[in-house]
Amino acid sequence: MFDFLDSGQYDLLGAFWVTVQLTLYSAAGSLIWGTVLAGIRVSPVPLMRGFAAVYVNVVRNTPLTALILGCSLGLSQTLGITLGGDTFKETGFRLAVLGLTAYTGTFVCEALRSGINTVPVGQAEAARALGLSFFQVLTLIVLPQAFRAVIAPLANVLIALTKNTTVAAAIGVAEAALLMKEMIENEAQALFEVFAVFAFGFVVLTLPTGLLLGWAAKRMAVKR
Amino acid sequence: MSTVLYDTPGPKAKVRNWIYSAVFLVLLGLALWWALGLMADKNQLDGDKWSPFVTDGQVWTTFLIPGLLETLKAAVIAMVIALPLGALFGIGRLSDHAWVRIPVGAVVEFFRAIPVLMLMLFGSALYVQYSNVESEIRPLYAVVTGLVLYNASVIAEIVRAGIQSLPRGQTDAAKAIGMRKGQTMAHVLLPQAVTAMLPALVSQLVVILKDTALGGAVLGYGELLSMSRQISANYSNTIPSLIVIAALFVGVNYALASSASWLEGRLRQSKKSTGAVVGVAEASDLATGNNSTG
């Protein structure tokens, strides 16, 4: 039934490895970028707040496909930005990570902002009474508590990101969705088996993430 | 205004904020200058790359408006099918009978775990092999299939959360006056839950709208984003066309999202609802980050 797996013609693990790598790099990038954005979004300077709000609302409402195609067609092919990638393959991968990071960062930012709202005002007031600056209040008092409150929403963002990496297929990054497309074309008679294999792959990738981070969210939550 | 993080600015803080604003503005200006310079180098800022969108009505009548209509068509069809299906699944998951609850739960969890793109590819291949849908309309079928399978399962979770957000007393009261389970659901729980879920459902439409763009990229569906290739083929203005199309998407989605939050505000005040509203945030939390897809 699953003969197509034995033929050695398809690098299934390799494709899923690219998916995993895309996920990990973009997750790290969007966590950093999202935290910075959240910091800007709650800052005391109105202009910076406004900038972050506009960025978040614009990018979140743009289809991810448009962002990733924009990175490929616009940034790379038109403007010649390759992000230091030497080969077509490398450049495509990096552009996909850039697009995914720019997009996912907004969701991380919004999750963190809702986490910041769960921190009691008294915490920050006490910190200010001790003479801490905005930056110190944010990084020492508020963000550590906010992060622990938003592990579960962040897990959902991470799961969505894992699924979103398939959009990189649109610019030819050799990840799972692209391989699935190829296999569907070549192994037409085994359509359901091919789909089952890839579906299983994604369940394997997303299920443990959800369970693990769900458990962590319960463990780490600040009991109030 | 004082918030969690900072006090109402005093005279010193005001001066500091002005300085930060100025520095930020300069940095932003530099970044913009660099980006525009890069674009100018590749002639993307030339007037003739942008002017078609203003002067040449054909760009709108041949590409942008038909593209937007295709996008809306796929999104609306998908929503109309996914909504009742999702409601059915959501209620199924709350069933008292394990033989209903467990299979429905499995189906919902399965389709939520699979990327929409893969569901669309699968749908497309399915129609090629097992149906005689004509090849012109097949991309629409495939896109709608993918969107329905995924979003119905997400909507099922929204419905479940909406019903569970209702106070227990509602069910008890319905039982006390002798309603059957079906009656309780149809006449008591669902009407109230619908008002609670409406904002989340509307914001799900934004997700569906954005996801239609996948159909253009991988299946050749003629939606708005896929028009960027055609426009840039005619006017060789890749970046301007992408920007205009992104702006159209943002405009439509932002209007939808704002109507969702307006609706949420209205429903919170309305006397008919319990005041319980499954907000946009909660719904996206529970629906495996659904609103970040595609």
Automatic annotation (TrEMBL), chain A:
Which InterPro entries is this protein grouped with? AA_ABC_transptr_permease_3TM, ArtM/GltK/GlnP/TcyL/YhdX-like, MetI-like, MetI-like_sf
Q: Keyword set for this entry?
A: Amino-acid transport, Cell membrane, Membrane, Transmembrane, Transmembrane helix, Transport
Does the record carry Coiled coil as a key word? no
- Ranges for domain ABC transmembrane type-1: 16-213
Question: A Pfam family name for this chain?
Answer: BPD_transp_1
Q: What residue ranges are annotated as transmembrane? A: 12-40, 64-83, 95-114, 126-143, 194-217
Question: How does this protein sit in the membrane?
Answer: Multi-pass membrane protein
Q: Where the protein is mainly located, per its record?
A: membrane
The superkingdom listed in its UniProt entry is Bacteria
Where is this chain's protein located in or outside the cell?
Cell membrane
Keyword Transport listed? The answer is yes
Q: Which PANTHER family match?
A: AMINO-ACID ABC TRANSPORTER PERMEASE PROTEIN YHDX-RELATED (PTHR30614:SF37), MEMBRANE COMPONENT OF AMINO ACID ABC TRANSPORTER (PTHR30614)
Instruction: Write out the similarity annotation.
Output: Belongs to the binding-protein-dependent transport system permease family. HisMQ subfamily.
Q: What is this protein called?
A: Glutamate ABC transporter permease
What's the source species for this entry? Streptomyces cirratus
Upper lineage is:
Bacteria, Bacillati, Actinomycetota, Actinomycetes, Kitasatosporales
